[in-house]
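cron nightly-structures :: item 1 of 1
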Amino acid sequence: MRVFVPGDSAAISIGADEVAARISKLDPTVTIVRNGSRGALWLETLVEVDTDSGRIAYGPVMPDDVQSLFDADFLKGGAHPLALGKTDDIEWLASQERVTFARVGIIDPLSLDEYRQHGGLVGLKSALGLTSEAIINEVTQSGLRGRGGAGFPAGIKWKTVAQTNSAQKYICCNADEGDSGTFADRMLIEGDPFTLIEGMTIAAIAVGATQGIVYLRSEYPHAISILQNAIEIAREFGWLGDRVLDSTHSFDIQIRVGAGSYVCGEETAMLESIEGKRGVVRAKPPLPAIEGLFGQPTVINNVLTLSTVPMVIAQGAAAYKARGVGRSLGTQVFQLGGNIARGGIVEKAFGVTLKELLDTYGAGTLSGKPFRAVQIGGPLGAYFSTQQLETSMDYESLIAAGGMLGHGGVVVFDDSVDLAVQAKFAMEFCAIESCGKCTPCRIGSTRGAETIDLIIKGVRVDENKKLLLDLCEVMTDGSLCAMGGLTPMPVKSAMVNFPSDFLGAAK
């Protein structure tokens, strides 16, 4: 008898460990599997039981509910107020298009046997039989773009590294995930770490790299532990090391833990941090693909990008690009958070509307108050209003609407939010997290927060609004990286879409 109790950090934070312990205490013969979260965070702790008819779900289960589950004979799928039926039939999950998250919540994250039973290593084994050019062409033809925010085509980046002559090349996975309202990288690492390792290995074979680095934020201790265990298991299996799956390729992976700097999510600041230096943005060119880590050609992709590669190689570019719209192909892992009734992971093909994400999956605000604003793309993303709910969630449509997709975070606010205060927060956030290298970001953000504060207080409102827009223009055009360059986006979108919040004392 197997019972699945998520070992994901989100589930643990609300009592999953105690739920697992109480189940084991009441029936020591039960095998507890600490799977990843299915992503329906509003149902955590989601307990699943293996039965002859499939996995039956119960949730949200609190520690004090465990005894009543046993009283209802839940090990045989018995009726209970928390019973949800077959997990696969839960509409919130069944209507998704899970590709990158296909195994998360289904397998034991550290069981290599289960990983292989559910399609793992198929992509890597296929890649071992292909040339570098063939692998890169498949990734390019799939339309896979960087899921970290920039949306740059992964195949083009790989091709540049492959064509650059060097005795040493690196694969760097950016797992810093510092955007507020984002948690997909963490959940994937905790729920299916082998798929990241497989994606990095395929990338290494494609470009001729022998060393991989995962830059993982210190705020994710559980993810660090799981990924380290997965790397060691892969080494013992012969997947990582001198001969990858008995091939002529050599590749290994190490974890480097970040020290909490938001700007180290920027690729060149990340490289500086890995090298043991202060996390400061580098000027470009040279591009990291040509002179990256320790001056060597380096592929830098984020967790979701690299973890999607195994599916692309296993099933082919055509299967992946069949989903999506325009130049935004495949699926995106959206993360619903903030004041939302049903928060969590929603993986859908590009082209789903913001309205569908908020209504069909999010089920409105948690407070029950009317929805007023949603910020897309992290703390530097734009604020959208109720008039923009039909916006298609893809790279090009969001840019056309004055926003960006970023890492796929969607943070909801009800009608109690003050967008002038949120705009001030954006500037304050930039001031705190700026690496300090360039003046527009370092000084502009501080002046921006002061100017918005004057507007809120009703001091020379029109004059200060003009000053603020001028300041935003300088930051956008003059900042060295996206930290200062994108901070004006939430500020200007708040001013345009919610003008009544910027009337000062008159509002």
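cron nightly-structures :: done
The chain has a mean pLDDT of 95.
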